[in-house]
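Predict the 3D structure for this chain.
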Amino acid sequence: MPIATVNPANGETLKTYEAMGEEEVERRLQLAQATFRTYRTTTFADRARLLNRAADLLDEDGPEIARVMTTEMGKPVKQARAEAAKCAKAMRWYAERAEGLLADEEPPDADVRDSGASRALIRYRPMGPVLAVMPWNFPLWQVVRFAAPALMAGNVGLLKHASNVPQTALYLEDLFHRAGFTEGCFQTLLIGSAAVDDILRDERIKAATLTGSEPAGRAVASTAGEMIKKTVLELGGSDPFVVMPSADVDRAAEVAVTARVQNNGQSCIAAKRFVVHSDVYDRFAERFTEGMRALKVGDPLEEDTEVGPLASEQGRDDLEELVDDARRGGAGVLCGGERPEGPGWYYPPTVLTGVTREMRIHREEAFGPVATVYRAADLDEAVLIANDSPFGLSSNVWTRDASEVDRFVRDLEAGGVYVNGMTASHPAFPFGGVKRSGYGRELSGHGIREFCNITTVWHGA
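Done. Predicted structure below.
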């Protein structure tokens, strides 16, 4: 894939970039290593001052960078502005809390004495340069949720962003530099995917984080495993959205629309499979379909657009193949399901029923505004359908029954269970999945500690 900005609303190539050569990549690796030696000794107060300044600048730049994101990958511009604001909020969250999250921990006195020590503690120390391989779908947020905790922990970052969002990638490097961070604290590598393996093998890179596809995750995990390097992977998702009879069905159907089509349906944590109890199935399906059908699809730069184009032509082709395969297998189409005429990589909000395990869409991630609705006879069947997926990123459960909540929290195979609401990431809560959705956690105290050397300090009596 060339490194280029291609407007998905019309297919027009706006800017192209040459990939960095070996000499420039080497210069940046050297700079990262040299910068880490001194940056790791800075105080939390110094880091917080810089990160808060970056947040202020991002707030000022919000409208402009939002238009860049929309032009590069097609999200509605209102959602792009909200993404920028969310990133600034996360920066301030870590600036305020990182010192407490990484404070020395002291084991109980009894355990210290039992070990023969006069004193013992656990200290979190930065690891070094971390390679971040990031996707296009949330081109600011995916990076900032790594960069903010990494920089506050004393690490430095090198970003290999998706090749279709180069302007956003370069903006991030410039943002941190304008905020006052030393040049080597955060650098963007304009390189193709084929160059990642060699960089990950470089001894100066101490760890890696990747958000992206399962094949990309396998490749990074394989190399990192060979080199004995820490990784955090956030891969695909096909989150269930379970609705039980005690739920507020109308509210569930309303939220379900947003949960499915946020970011034009191109979100790993978007609800994709809607598992509905038979007692409320017809009502939910009717309301949900009405909501999906009523969405305004159009130019993502227009303020009232709710669903824009998919980010790439290939992405639309892949989604269309999943829908066509399901239709050939006997699935019903309650709305959508047909590619519109005209320019741009648009696909309409679509609702499918009668999906079976033999259909590809049952096992694969539908990365676009396509929902599958399943009927469940009872709670046990709802859990079985929800877990019948290779993915386990997050889940959504709608019920007013406390005992049902306990069952879902106990039995759903996912990194999160959101009750009577839709899954969303927030700096305060750990984010990540199980099964083929990856491993490790981002955000919260768990996320900032992923790339720390957890060091035991023992003092003899």
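The radius of gyration is 23 Å.
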